[in-house]
């Protein structure tokens, strides 16, 4: 038996995924695999290599002179402090936004028409278009009970095949495979859904000429349109959605029954130079918007109605449809080319040889076979390039595999690790690599016989032969200097300058650490953590503390020469918490007193990190520095910074310099940190500009995090800070990590996004990594791919666990390859595309003016949609906007990215906030980036039962004055209270029936004894538990000044910074697409 159960991580205080993972995968061949990894007890088997470590041999020289710490100060005072923070750092800003709701008052109500259902259509996503026979399960054998298609109509039909290896699923099980289609013409896959309203659409199309008699913009509807073009017979089963004529008018009405490709003659503007479209009644774009390169559209005729927002694709509806259709059955990863449920859907996962979507999501699950196909029809950074964000550590740990002294079995040539894509041959004596086809001998100890299908008989006993994700125990060959690693250390650096003390930060940190140190990460919940700790305080000098267990009191050593940082003590600096508990507690009690009356306002920053680095070097271990810092480091020292904040540069070509670090000092320091496995987490408590762009360099390059508490006040921000700190200290971590992505011949990983360092083009180096860090990888073609074999990716992360064990986490992923463009658009994931695009854009602003970045984004997305329209969509009026089903939300989400604070800031957002958000996004996973760009707005109506009320779209016009709404952005929570909210509702939530008596400064709701209050607080708690950062609650009363901050997140509306509304942007995209097609 070579697989052992995975130790349970401790403490499980946070649940990364609200939904359970079921990793049952293939059926166990013996009991050892039968347990769920989540509930496995810790095993002391071969896994427990490190255990508690003895302390270091301490052969260091005599300690330098020291001064005894004395209790000399009286208790500290927390003063009235700085101005009240308004949460996210947005200042109140006079609105320039006209009310919007009135504009739609006369719009026709939405009326959806359901297309005729397909006969015997299953309620499930579209099947692959290719015949099932050409889609073998790649290498990894599907287990006998596998359901290749989790169709609700075939819930209990097992996939039975005489040759489960490569045999095609028999036709009856497969959902209706559409005839081998060639596009164009021909509809994309049909996608019927069981719920009837509103209809699922496979093509969202709108616009087209509007008869002048139309009273208002007609609704978006599906199925054959009474007014729109009548679909040709081949479209009759297609649920094409036509938005009949809206404001995107053209001169001619749609041609019923139009056939024959893309009729350029349909539109008078086609083939002409770009210019105002006759009859174009699109919205006006203010000068500062300037999307793309085209001229502004002509002024709209005054009588023109605006496009009805209800008639355009709704994120809420898409999310809801996916939830209804895909949450009931587990998602099985064994079916290649199948897009998983959306990140907003709760679902279970069965690992059948591909990594769970919790670990890897792709922009597209069909890759083009050839680079030509990818290049010719799409822009270089297209969603057709697969870019899975890789969640490398999670709270649902995979199985651990130990291949013994020889280490993990690998391909001789490309070094890919053993995985379900290795094909055993010659009776099991050799295996052929799925990535490079090289044949490698099977070591004798790993030999196993094959069954009659050519599969190893122990296949289902071994996670590495049957699962998408697992871990190997790494041998000493995988360790730095061929030496098993020491357990990591945590070092706490506390700024004790005037601002840090006065804000209450120092006191809070010291009080909290006394408890928190008992919750350092560990793999065995029964044992003590092996992580050792050290403490330093600093302003413009550094104070090191000796907390050796034999001391009665901690000892302080001051290093005032910070120009060439050294470590003044070795013995007693890094200690075990239990060994030195009394001394540490005494120190943490004394620090706030010692500095309570400090007058020192200047700080250093570079020497702080240097000191931590030196300490880890001296101890020969990896570790993490927790730096609690308050000001711009202007004291004379390496890494000293100057205040370069200059708002005049915003919007100019020089703006990019503000996102770049001031000097190369911190980049160089990062390199040293990564080499040592020194990860830095930075907690900022600024009252003014601190240059996050520069201070964040080391955290971002070392796999660390930056937390920012602007205008920190103990009373109101304590909860948020402490929750962040607790989570940050406790979460499972890896250290000294290297990630390598291997691919099958034909594609390769070309670009990476995230918090890491790269010293070459292939190895992603992370001093630390945790469950909150995602790496996004871009793949490009370098050769032809085969439709038969698909494309394979293997992501391997070598790291040191928090118990000091060297491990390799492996994620495997196979996607389909296709030669038809239409297939590319069939299994895309818009949320992942947006994750990739936003990271790309946020990085581009380091070198490119933000306006250029925005224009490029619009152009790229327009090209993607134009390519679909040109090659895949059924013929229809040129005036119609036709969106692929999987990408119908691309415009609305893209608009949210474009008008985000980083790319299009309002006057009220600081440069530090923008730099902070930019860094934050770089390691977000798809779920986080989704809510970051499209927040969740919940009407608090009936809160009975366990389910949440259905969200509403992020627009002011969706708010009722009589209601109360909860808005979650991933970083903030707002409770918006309508001015006419029902008294009963207010009483239930706030304990008062009177609007005017609600205190807008409260950060938590009163604990009232009624079901509504209880349920609301439960919802808030559950939202918080799903996010990596604690969301502070802000109560916003309608028409209060703070409402502007709230409205900032209503991302379908026009923004005060000039960002377009969704409706306007969609019209603009349509224009861009038409220009590309002309
Ligand atoms: Zn190979």
TrEMBL record:
One of its GO terms (molecular function) is SNARE binding. Residues 948-1020 form the Gelsolin-like domain. GO terms for biological process: COPII-coated vesicle cargo loading; intracellular protein transport. It is found in: Cytoplasm, Cytosol; Cytoplasmic vesicle, COPII-coated vesicle membrane; Endoplasmic reticulum membrane. Residues 408-446 form the Zinc finger Sec23/Sec24-type domain. Residues 485-729 form the Sec23/Sec24 trunk domain. It comes from the Eukaryota. Residues 166-175, 184-201, 212-234 have a biased composition (Pro residues). Transmembrane segments: none annotated. Keywords: Cytoplasmic vesicle, Protein transport, Transport. Residues 734-817 form the Sec23/Sec24 beta-sandwich domain. It is a peripheral membrane protein. Residues 98-122, 148-159, 202-211, 261-295 have a biased composition (Low complexity). GO terms for cellular component: COPII vesicle coat; cytosol; endoplasmic reticulum exit site; endoplasmic reticulum membrane. InterPro entries: ADF-H/Gelsolin-like_dom_sf, Beta-sandwich_Sec23_24, Gelsolin-like_dom, Gelsolin-like_dom_sf, Sec23/24_helical_dom, Sec23/24_helical_dom_sf, Sec23/24_trunk_dom, SEC23_SEC24_subfamily. It holds the Pfam family Sec23_BS. Residues 830-929 form the Sec23/Sec24 helical domain. This is SEC24 homolog C, COPII coat complex component. It comes from Oncorhynchus mykiss (Rainbow trout).
């Amino acid at each position: 038996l070579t697989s052992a159960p995975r130790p349970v991580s401790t403490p499980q205080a946070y649940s990364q995924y609200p939904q359970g993972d079921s990793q049952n995968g293939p059926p166990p061949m013996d009991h050892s695999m039968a347990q769920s990894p989540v509930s496995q007890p810790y095993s002391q088997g071969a896994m427990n290599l490190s255990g508690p470590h003895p302390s270091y041999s301490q052969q260091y020289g005599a300690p330098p002179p020291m001064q005894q710490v004395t209790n000399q100060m009286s208790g500290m005072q927390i003063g009235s402090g700085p101005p009240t923070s308004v949460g996210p750092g947005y200042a109140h800003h006079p609105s320039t936004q006209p009310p919007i709701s009135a504009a739609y008052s006369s719009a026709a109500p939405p009326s959806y028409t359901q297309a005729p259902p397909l006969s015997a259509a299953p309620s499930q996503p579209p099947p692959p278009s290719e015949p099932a026979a050409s889609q073998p399960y790649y290498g990894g054998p599907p287990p006998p009970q596998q359901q290749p298609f989790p169709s609700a109509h075939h819930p209990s039909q097992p996939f039975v095949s005489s040759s489960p290896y490569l045999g095609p699923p028999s036709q009856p099980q497969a959902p209706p495979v559409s005839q081998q289609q060639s596009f164009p013409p021909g509809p994309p896959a049909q996608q019927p859904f069981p719920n009837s309203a509103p209809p699922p659409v496979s093509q969202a199309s709108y616009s087209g000429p509007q008869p002048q008699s139309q009273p208002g913009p007609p609704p978006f509807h599906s199925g054959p349109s009474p007014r729109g073009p009548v679909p040709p017979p081949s479209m009759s089963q297609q649920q094409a959605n036509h938005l009949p004529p809206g404001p995107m008018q053209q001169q001619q009405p749609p041609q019923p029954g139009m056939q024959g490709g893309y009729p350029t003659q349909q539109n008078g503007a086609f083939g002409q130079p770009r210019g105002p479209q006759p009859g174009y009644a699109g919205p006006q774009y203010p000068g500062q918007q300037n999307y793309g390169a085209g001229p502004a559209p002509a002024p709209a005729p005054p009588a023109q109605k605006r496009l009805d927002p209800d008639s355009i694709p709704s994120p809420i509806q898409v999310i809801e449809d996916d939830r209804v259709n895909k949450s009931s059955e587990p998602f099985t990863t064994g079916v290649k080319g199948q897009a998983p449920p959306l990140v907003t859907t709760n679902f279970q996962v069965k690992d059948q040889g591909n990594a769970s979507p919790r670990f890897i999501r792709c922009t597209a699950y069909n890759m083009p076979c050839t680079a030509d196909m990818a290049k010719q029809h799409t822009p270089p950074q297209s969603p057709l390039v697969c870019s899975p964000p890789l969640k490398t550590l999670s709270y649902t740990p995979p199985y651990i595999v130990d291949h013994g002294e020889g280490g993990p079995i690998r391909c001789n040539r490309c070094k890919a690790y053993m995985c379900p894509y290795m094909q055993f041959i010659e009776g099991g004596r050799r295996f052929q690599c799925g990535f490079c086809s090289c044949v490698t001998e099977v070591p004798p100890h790993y030999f196993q016989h094959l069954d009659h299908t050519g599969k190893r008989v122990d296949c289902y006993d071994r996670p590495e032969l049957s699962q998408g994700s697992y871990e190997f125990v790494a041998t000493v060959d995988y360790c730095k200097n061929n030496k098993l690693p020491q357990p990591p250390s945590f070092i706490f650096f506390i700024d004790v300058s005037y601002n840090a003390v006065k804000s209450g930060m120092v006191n809070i940190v010291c009080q909290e650490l006394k408890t928190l140190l008992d919750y350092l990460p560990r793999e065995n919940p029964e044992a003590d953590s092996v992580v050792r700790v050290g403490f330093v305080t600093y302003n413009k000098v550094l104070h090191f503390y000796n907390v050796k267990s034999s001391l009665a009191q901690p000892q302080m050593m001051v290093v005032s020469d910070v120009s060439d940082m050294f470590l003044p003590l070795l013995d007693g600096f890094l200690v075990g918490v239990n060994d030195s508990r009394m001394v540490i507690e005494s120190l943490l009690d004394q620090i706030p007193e010692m500095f309570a009356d400090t007058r020192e306002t200047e700080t250093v920053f570079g020497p702080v990190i240097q000191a931590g680095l030196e300490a880890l070097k001296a101890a020969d271990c990896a570790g993490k520095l927790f730096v609690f810092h308050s000001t711009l480091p202007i004291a004379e020292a390496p890494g000293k910074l100057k205040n370069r904040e200059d708002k005049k540069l915003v919007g100019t070509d020089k703006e990019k310099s503000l996102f770049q670090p001031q000097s190369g000092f911190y980049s160089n320091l990062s390199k040293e940190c990564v080499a040592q496995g020194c990860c830095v987490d930075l907690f900022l408590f600024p009252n003014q500009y601190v240059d996050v762009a520069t201070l964040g360099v080391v955290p971002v390059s070392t796999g660390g995090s930056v937390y920012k508490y602007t205008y920190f006040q103990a009373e109101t921000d304590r909860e948020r800070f402490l929750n962040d700190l607790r989570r940050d200290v406790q979460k499972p971590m890896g250290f000294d990590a290297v990630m390598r992505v291997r691919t099958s011949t034909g594609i390769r990983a070309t670009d990476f996004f995230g918090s890491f360092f790269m010293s070459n083009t292939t190895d992603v180096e992370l001093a630390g990594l945790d469950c909150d860090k995602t790496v996004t990888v871009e793949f490009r073609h370098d050769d032809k791919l085969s439709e038969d074999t698909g494309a394979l990716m293997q992501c391997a992360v070598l790291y040191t666990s928090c118990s000091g064990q060297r491990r390799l986490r492996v994620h495997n992923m196979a996607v389909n390859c296709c030669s038809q463009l239409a297939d590319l658009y069939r299994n895309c994931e818009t949320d992942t595309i947006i994750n990739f695009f936003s990271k790309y854009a946020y990085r581009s602003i380091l070198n490119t003016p933000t306006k250029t970045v925005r224009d490029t984004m619009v152009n790229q997305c327009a090209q993607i949609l134009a390519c679909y329209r040109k090659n895949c969509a059924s013929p229809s009026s040129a005036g119609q906007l036709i969106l692929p089903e999987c990408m119908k939300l691309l415009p609305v989400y893209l608009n949210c990215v474009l008008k985000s604070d980083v790319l299009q800031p309002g006057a009220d957002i600081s440069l530090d906030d923008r730099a902070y958000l930019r860094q934050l996004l770089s390691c977000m996973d798809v779920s986080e980036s989704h809510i970051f760009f499209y927040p969740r707005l919940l009407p608090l109506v009936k809160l009975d039962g366990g389910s949440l009320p259905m969200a509403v779209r992020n627009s002011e016009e969706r708010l009722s004055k009589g209601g109360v709404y909860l808005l979650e952005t991933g970083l903030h929570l707002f409770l918006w209270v309508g001015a006419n909210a029902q008294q009963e509702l207010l009483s239930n939530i706030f304990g008062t029936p009177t609007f005017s008596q609600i205190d807008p400064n409260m950060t938590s709701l009163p604990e009232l004894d009624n079901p509504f209050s209880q349920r609301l607080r439960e919802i808030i708690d559950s939202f918080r538990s799903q996010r990596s950062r604690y969301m502070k609650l802000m109560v916003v009363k309608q028409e209060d000044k703070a409402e502007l901050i709230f409205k900032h997140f209503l991302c379908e509306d026009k923004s005060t910074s000039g960002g377009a509304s969704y409706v306007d942007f969609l019209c603009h995209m349509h224009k861009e697409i038409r220009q590309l097609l002309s």
